[in-house]
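Lab manual, section 2.4: Encoding a predicted structure.

Procedure: take the sequence of the chain (391 residues), apply the prediction step described in section 2.3, and record the output as structure tokens. A sample record is shown.
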Amino acid sequence: MNNYKAIQISENIFWTGAVDWLMRNFHGYETSRGSSYNAYLILDEKITLIDTAKITFTDELLARISSVVEPAKIDVIVSSHVEPDHSGALREIAALAPQAEIITTNPNGLKGLTARYGKLNYHAVKAGDEISIGKRTLKFVPTPMLHWPDSMVTYCPEEKILFSNDAFGQHLATSMRFDDENDLDTVLREAKKYYANILMPFGKQAQTALKALGGLELRMIATGHGVLWRKHIDKILDCYKSWSAGEVEERAVVVFDSMWHSTEILARTIAEAFAARNIPAAFYDVKSTPLSDIITDVFTSKYLAVGSPTINNQMMPTIAAFLCYLIGLRPVKHKAFAFGSYGWGGQSIGLVEDELRAAGCEILLDKIRIANVPTAQQLDDIAKKISALNL
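Recorded output:
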């Protein structure tokens, strides 16, 4: 037996999701604070479930629903997103409530759900479509590529609640459901981390979605992961406007790996040189910090320096992994340069510079290549180069 209960978030509207306290990785994104899979149950003339949960949390989802109503009585299931952290229990819910109409986007949601779960009682919607579930109306707003082609949000005008799916969420496990019940700095940090590691490539799509939602009156944002927003809605909306526009701060991030500390010495010199210009500099040994945490800092920092020694005529595998991750996220408005030490070939530094270009970075300074151990004069020259940059 378990004691999972639904949590009321508004009159006859309940959070019925699951908390994943132990999750530490979400397809390469380290989630040190776990996550949640948020689902919502609306009691109206048509009992409606918005989203499900990861399949391994089906029992928790069903227990929370059952604490309010028998799952067999569900009339409508809104599937906001095909990805299985949201739709994983769909087949199980549909089996318990075979009469339930499953709302998804046309054509991408319909294709995705059919491919994953087979033929069920689907009803595909497009932008502007709405349904009445009794006293309440649900309006559907597709948000393609935020972050899958099928993604959509659902707005209930009578409640002024936006069921936002992946938008505005965080990978954050907590027993308290709302923003004002948790430490705001932690929630915002995790929201930024979520955006940086999942939504960064889709800034234009995020701006389009924000415009589509701009005229809506919002009393609550019910997210797909993490806490719900009710007190700091303006704050998270402002953050998304800034993040989606690719706004960056006068900050530097120095990322490196090192074999015998020579590249590390260069990294320290570079960080100190930025600091000497009153530009805060973060300093990351890539072996010691998860890539998702580094990316969160890179995301809003204007300057990026990446260093690697040379091994087997290549950059270090750890730095190659970081740059591969960076390229996939397609950062904008970043200025970068490569640095590193070498024994005899020194190919790594040029390869790093090439990858920074491939990531869309503007090359700020020609690559810094130092043979063996840097001398005091060479370190002084590096500091002078950074001091002389026209930033």
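Check your result against the sample. Residues 381 and 387 are 10 Å apart (CA to CA).
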